[in-house]
Amino acid sequence: MKPLSRLAATAVYTVALLGIWLLGGSKYDWMSDIDPAFADATFETHGSREVATAVFVVIALCATAFLARSGKERGNRVTPLILSLLAILVYVASRA
């Protein structure tokens, strides 16, 4: 596999991971910190943040699958697995 395509896949993964981190959670989380009377469930959201975050997770997992498939050595096949677990961990942590 050409190093340029592996670099591109790594860049796609990095952007997707950044998108997961930035879009995770609710945009109204800060309000309950200021005034505890506000509950997060009182605000209506259309769910577009959840859809975009899910798309970023799928993109990150596809990029790591490409990296794992293109790796010829053992280290090049284990690293994408660790990156996939990191993407899932960031997604779960951003939901909490």
How is this fold's topology laid out?
Layout: H1 3-23, H2 29-34, H3 48-70, H4 74-95
Helix pairs in contact: 1-3, 1-4, 3-4
Give a quick rundown of the structure:
The chain has 96 residues and is mostly helical. 75% of the residues lie in helices and 0% in strands.
Protein described:
- By secondary structure, this protein is mainly alpha-helical.
- The chain has one domain (3-95).
- The protein is 75% helix and 0% strand.
- The chain has 4 helices and no strands.
How would you sum up the global shape? elongated
Main sheet record = none
How many β-strand runs? 0
Helix/strand structural class: mainly alpha
Mean residue pLDDT: 82
SSE run: HHHH
Number of domains: 1
Strand % is under 5%
Helix content: over 70%
Distance between the termini: 38 Å
Question: How many helix segments?
Answer: 4
Q: Give the oligomeric state of the chains in this entry, treating copies of one chain as homo and distinct chains as hetero.
A: single chain
Low-confidence stretches: none
CA-atom Rg in angstroms:
17 Å
Transmembrane segments: 7-24, 51-68, 75-94
Keywords: Membrane, Transmembrane, Transmembrane helix
